[in-house]
Amino acid sequence: MNLKKNIQNIKKNYSLGIIGGGQLALMLAEAAKNRGIKVCVQTKSSSDPAGSKADCVIEADPLKVKGNKELIKECEKITFENEWIKIEKLNLIGSKNIFVPSLESIQPLVDRISQKKLIDRMNFPSPKWLSLKEFRRLDDEEIKDWHFPLMVKSYKGGYDGKGNKRINNQDELNSFALNANLDECLIEEWVDYKKELALVGSRDFDGNIRFFPIVETYQKNNVCDWVFSPAEINYDLKTFAINIFSSIVNELNYVGVMAIEFFYGDSGLLINEIAPRTHNSAHFSIEACSSSQFDQHICISSGIKPPEINMHCQGSLMINLLGLKKKYPLSIEKRIELLSQIKGSNLHWYGKSEESPGRKMAHITFLLNENNHLKRALKAKEILIKVREIWPSPNY
Fold first, then answer.
1. Contact 159, 223 (CB under 8 A)
2. Is 396 contained in some domain?
3. Is residue 339 situated within a structural domain?
4. How confident is the model at residue 157, as a pLDDT?
5. Distance of alpha carbon 174 from the chain centroid
6. How many angstroms separate the CA atoms of 351 and 362, rounded?
7. Number of domain units in the chain
8. Torsions phi, psi for 80 (to 5 deg)
9. Rounded to an integer, what distance in angstroms lies between the CA atom of residue 15 and that of residue 32?
């Protein structure tokens, strides 16, 4: 494990440490620099995305205690790039008030089963679910309440569609169960939704909650393809989503940025998943809002009163740029050059060393100033076509 400093004569202690060094940590580090806040990142390699922006890099696996101890020694506060952390070990080595959000508040959100139990306990709507082990124990009468297709999810470590599998019939279920660890999966009813929505917001140490606009997200191969904001939803639906978010963060005494993904359709608004961190669905906020999701989280973690959140445009389109196959005819450099030539483009390159199919390499945001939803939607479609002609979504 090596401690590498990017800036000479820097103080030993840093205002903020980040466990993880991927693109979310990169954008947190960029927001910190804009605030004059010095950041130390714990990640496997200083060449990881956040390494180029951090003031200090601790080269260590984010899940390894030795690196965690070094980070805690160097930093006043510690936050997380993602929720896949070992809370039990962190509880043993860190003081209770050093982590943002607190370990206690993030505990119910680190895996899908504990999330589901929290949602059920709070009596919020979500797809019907069981652990796969419980599902396999259902008798013939109980199984009648379940209908194919079904969705199987790994209970921990899943993101961007990883760990999700659609099960279309009993034979597929039997085959999956033979090769799966039943203790590590849950099964959900299939939801025929009309829209996928996401709400990202923040809660500070004084309990003040701030919201970004609710957005509509579009998925391909279980990965977010693009995000359109704001979503076209009625007042009651918006209020319900905001109330769900507020209730959850207050119940957990959660501090920092959080995202909730929803399904919306004939069954109403259903919680899909909760992400206790900054989230892909609010990347648009970097250009479109007075304070981005990363700025909110940096301010809160560093003891700065976060600004109020306002959109300074009518809407936005954020498109994910995922890795393509090696034989794709346009080089990365050429794709970036062509994308940068599209009027109004705001390209965020993550600095990853290798391109592989489906890997998040960058995102690009466009601000929309048309005066109604339909006009913005048509403009977004026009832009999306241009972007996808240069950088298509990968086909797996």
1. no
2. no
3. yes
4. 63
5. 32
6. 8
7. 3
8. -125, 140
9. 10
Is residue 30 in some structural domain?
A: yes
Q: Is residue 116 part of a domain?
A: no
Which 8-state DSSP code applies to residue 282? Answer: G
Alpha carbons 180 and 268: distance in angstroms, whole number: 32
Cβ atoms of 6 and 59 within 8 Å: the answer is no
How do 150-154 and 193-203 pair as beta strands? unpaired
CA 356 to CA 394: how far, in whole Å? 10
CA angle 304–309–313, rounded 5-degree value: 140
> Parallel, antiparallel, or unpaired: how do β-strands 360-368 and 346-349 relate?
antiparallel
Determine the pLDDT at residue 180: 82
pTM above 0.90, yes or no: yes
Tokens, residue 222: 């279980």
- CA atoms of 139 and 347, how far apart (whole Å): 53
Q: What is the DSSP letter of 148?
A: S
Angle between helices 23-34 and 293-301 (to 10 degrees): 70
Mean pLDDT by 10 residues, the chain (396 residues): 49 84 98 97 96 96 94 96 91 88 96 95 97 91 93 77 84 88 89 97 98 97 94 98 98 98 97 97 98 98 96 97 94 97 98 93 98 97 98 87
Beta strands 75-80; 56-59: pairing state? unpaired
The pLDDT of residue 4 is 55
Helix (H, G, I), strand (E, B) or coil at 197: strand
Return the pLDDT at 222: 83
How far lies 315's CA from each of 74, 192, 392, in Å?
A: 40, 27, 23
CA neighbor of 23 nearest in space, from 5, 4, 41: 41
One domain, residues 156 and 262: no
Please report the pLDDT score of residue 9 as a whole number: 40
Cβ-in-10-Å burial (0-12, 13-18, 19+) of 207 comes to exposed
Nearest to 363 by CA among 385, 387, 379: 387
The token duo for 205 is 């140490």
Mark whether 288 and 336 lie in a shared domain: yes
Collapsing DSSP to helix, strand or coil, 222 comes out as: coil
Q: Give me the phi and psi of 310, to 5 degrees please.
A: -135, 145
